[in-house]
Structures are given as C-alpha cells and as structure tokens.
Amino acid sequence: MSETTHLDGYETIEPTTSPAGGRSSLGRMHGFRVGKLPLPLILGAVLVGAFILIALVSFVWTPHDPTAMVVADRLLPPGSDGYLFGTDKFGRDVVSQLMVGARNSLFVSLLSTSVALVIGALLGLLTAGAGPRWRNLLSRLVDAGVALPGILIALVLATSTGPGNRAAIVAIIVWFIPTVARVTIGPARQILALDFVEAAYAYGRSRWYVLLHHVTPNIGPLLIVLGSVMFAAAILIEAALAFLGVGAQPPTASWGRLLQESQPLLEAAPALMFFPGVAIVLTVLGFNLLGDGLRTLLDPQQATRNAGLL
Amino acid sequence: MVRVILRSIGSLLLAAFLGSLIVFGLLRTIGGDVALIMLGQEAAPGAYEALRAELGLDQPWYSQYGDWLVGVFSGDLGTSYSARFDIYEEIVRRLEPTALLAFGSLVLSIPLALALGTYSAIKVKKIRGGVVDVLSQIGIAIPAFWAGLMLVVIFGIRLGWLPTGGFTSPFEDLGASLRQLAMPIVALSLGITSVLTRYVRSAMLDVMGEDFIRTARAKGRTRRGAALVHGVRNASVSLVTVGTLQLGSLLAGTVVIENVFVIPGIGRLLVTSVLGREVIVVQSLILVILLMILVMNFLLDIAYVLIDPRIRDSQGGKAIV
Prior knowledge:
The complex is a heterodimer of chains A (310) and B (321). Helix content of chain A is 68%, strand content 0%. By secondary structure, chain A is mostly helical. In chain A, α3 crosses α11 and α4 (94-129) runs parallel beside α7. Chain A starts with a helix and ends in a 12-residue tail after the last helix. Chain B has helices spanning 2-29, 34-39, 45-55, 61-74, 87-122, 127-141, 144-158, 174-207, 211-218, 223-260, 266-275, 279-307, 309-316. The N and C termini of chain B lie close together (10 Å).
C-alpha cells in the first residue's frame, strides 16, 4: 500500500479534512434509518445495552441479596421457586450474583479501556509527531509491547502488589496502551502529511495544538471502534484473572470468580458453571459485534482491523 | 537467507536480554521489599534477615541480576522458599506438558483456520460462508477456560469418554497422553482458531481482488481453483504475521487451561507461585515464557521468509533463489 492511496482515501472519506464538508463521520449517521444500519451494530448495541443496564440495575435492585446465605436453599437447580438460575453451595441466588458480577466487569473494563485509550492515543500522537529518530525508537517499543500477553503482565503485578481488581486494571491498561498507540500512529501520520496541517503550522500553531485540535478529531472514530473491541478483550481477561484467583477477591462478585467457585461442583451442579459463562460470551460477543458494526460506519479504511487484540 | 537468520537471532538475543531486565526490574521494584512480600506481614524478625541473605537481596541489584542470569545458564536458580523445590529442575520438568499443549494447539488451529477462512472467503456471498463467520465471532467470545469447563462436564462427566484432567507423558503412554490432552488442546484452540479464521478470511478476500487471481480466472481457473492454487499461499503470509501476535495469548491461554485441567505445567506452577507471592520463582517462570514466545517468534520469522520470496528479496538484498 502506498502513502498516496491512503492520503486520497482520507481526503475523500473524512469530510472534516476536506474543504467542502464540515460534518464529521459521526454527523453523517444522523440521516440513517435503523433498517439501514449494519446488523452486527444493532445486535451488538442490544447486547451491550442489556449488559450495562443489568450492571446499573444491580445497584438498586437484585432479586435476592447476592451475599445472603440461605443454608436451607443450598445448590438448588435452575428454575427452583424464587431462584431462576438456582443457588450456589452457600444458598446464594445465582441471578443476583450474576447481576452484581456484571458490575465488576463493567467497572474494570470501563476504567482500564478509557485510561488506556487516553494514554495510548497520546503516545501514538507523540510518536507520529516526533522526529524520525524518536519515531523509530518509539514505534519499535510499541511493536514489542503489542506482543506482551495481558495475563502475564497481570501475574507479574499480582506477585509484587498482591492479587485483586487493582492488579487486573493496571495490567489491562499496560497491555492495551501499545495497541492503541500502534493503531493511532499510522492514521495520525497520514493526517499530519495533509496540506491543512502545514497551513496550521504556517499560521503559527504549535505541534501539540495541531496534534490535539486537528489530528485527534480525525482519529476519534478509530478510537471509538478500538475501544469497543478492547472492552470485549478486557471483559475476557478480567474473567480469566478472577478465575485464576489473581483478579477480583472475595467478597467482590465477578463472573470469573463464580466460574472458579463452580469448578469443584462440576459434577453436582453444572448449572453454576453454565450461566456465568453464557453471561461472558454474550457480553463479549456484544462488544465485538458493536465494534464490527461501528467499524463499517466509522473506519472505512479498516485501520483498526489488525489491532492484534484477542 | 543466512543474513535473515543471523539478524533474527540477533534480535532474539537482544529482546531476551531486555525482557529479562524488565522482568527483573518490575518484580524487584514495584512491590517493594521482596523478602517482606514473600514472608507476609507476620514474620519473625530473624527470618527476614535470613531470607534476605538466602536470596542474595543484601547484594547490589546488578550482582543479583548477574547471579540470576548466570543461574539461568548454569541451571541453578535457587530453591523455592515455601515449597522447597529446586526451581530449575522443577521448571525443566514442567516444560513438557506446556510445550505439548501450546504446540498441539498451533498444529490444530493453523490448518483448521486456513481451511475455514478460505472456505468462508470463497463462499462469501453464500449462507455457508456466513455461518463460518458467525461461528468464528462466537468462538472469539468464548473464554478458553469456560470452553474447558464445558468440555469437562460434557465429555468427562456426563459421557465419561475422556479423563477430566491430569497429564501423562506421550513417551510413557501415548494413548493415555492423547486422551488427557484432547480436551485441553481443543479448549485452547477454539479461540485461536476463531481469531485466525477471521484473519485468513479477510486476507483471502483481499487476495481474491488481486490481478493475478483475475489472470488465473481468465486462463480458465474456477474461483475455488484460483483461491486454492494462488490465494492460500498469499493469505498465509498475513496468517504468519497474526500468528506472531497470537503467540503471547496462546501461552497466556495455556496458563489458564493448565489450571482448568490440573496439568502440571509451567502455567500451573506460575499461578501457584503468584498466589504464594514467590517472587523468585515467578521471575524465572516469566522469563521462560518470554523465551518461548521469542523462540516461536523466531521460527515464524523464518517461516515468513520461506512462504514469501518477496520478503526474502527485500531483506536479504539480492535474491538467492
């Protein structure tokens, strides 16, 4: 792929960079009828919406107290009276625990994804705007960082600072930053090569002003798409870490911990293992579909396609 | 070719050195005093000094780091503090299950992904191609450890076809080994196959738009024939690129899967050591995993050049074909 085809693509596809149009890619969505939106986008939005709604509702209402242990109602099968998905070995309601677990998934993923997006995008912008020597060095570091697996980072952190949500969040942030930077660098450099950037410099704007006011709005759509895919990855790793006992600690409810607790009971109560897994799959699927759908709308150049996540 | 190999070895060594420095630095600094971490809050006063001396923590950091590196090569990494096993021997003993698990998953998922991705790209406008696409999307969303638990319940407990865990070396009893490894490998491959399938699919769709495919079709090849004869090799190049990025998650996956199936590999030791705050053991284990990633990366670099002569030409200067 040559630079020029990219440049042409960006000039025609991003209206904000062309002199004629003042509307952003997001602005173009307003004229859309729901029926014209890509199917993955709708499906993803529904699943993600349900996930967020459930997590929020859990703050004000759950069918039962998620931590209340009712000895008489231990290990009830799904569909038992008052317990839609049954109870665990302490007699706690599975539905309520799943709802509260959604809260932890949302908290960890939201925090880690947004912090990583900000830091990663800044690092990417810095790299794109730096001189050739720094740019090469930073790009190499970013490339190496992308290959680091998130779970290993979390395990290192958990060894020195102790297991828990904090180790999980910091690990996910460290894991995501190179990915965000890598996706940012290319498009940012293409925009920096456009005429209007030179005009801004000629006008006397500083490098950071150009990066933040002219480049950032143009890579915004990419970051939205990437954010959605990262959210999915964050939910998976949060669950995996909690499953290993390295993430969320008792009494914090987490889908991964529910699965960990279900493992010794696989024979007696396989349902305990079933529902948290389905919750994870649906949520991750939702964010991935949402990301795919948004990509068709916001990222026609597919710059986020090979982000290397998951 | 030789130049490419030498350069790859060079960057492998450099990356291994930098990686060991970072692992050492991270584990020794962010958590504070290593001896305190390992002993916990209620340590006897004498135990603290004794442990510091035993681990060499009273030495300056560069001599600690040097001792560790020498230990890696001479096979002396010290003794685990709480479990009292010889760390080096334990790691060597546990390499086999982890390597088999990771290798088995690659052997299963790469050809499968090539086949599925190519199929779904050829049938891109048909429902059957779409089904592969939807399935791969679901496969990505399924956590490996949950897939493992589901397999255990279905094939281990309900049907009783396969053992629910454990490990036997294939050199002792091949049949038992395969039966024990089947479910872990499938669980681990599910996500990787799905990710790779999607990459192969989009790479194949790109390749199918190339001029040489049009030429092949003009010469009378069917769409499928052109894809199989000319497309797959081209799409493999991008599969290798993504494969490199997937190696990390593959090994991270083995860590989780070993804990589902109680496989005595590197990953299970790692999690036990992390939870027991055994800094010294974790440090060496992470380095071993890093080395595994780097070596596989190196092999993929070579594969890259073998698959695509264009890369060989651009890297080696002159074509040696």
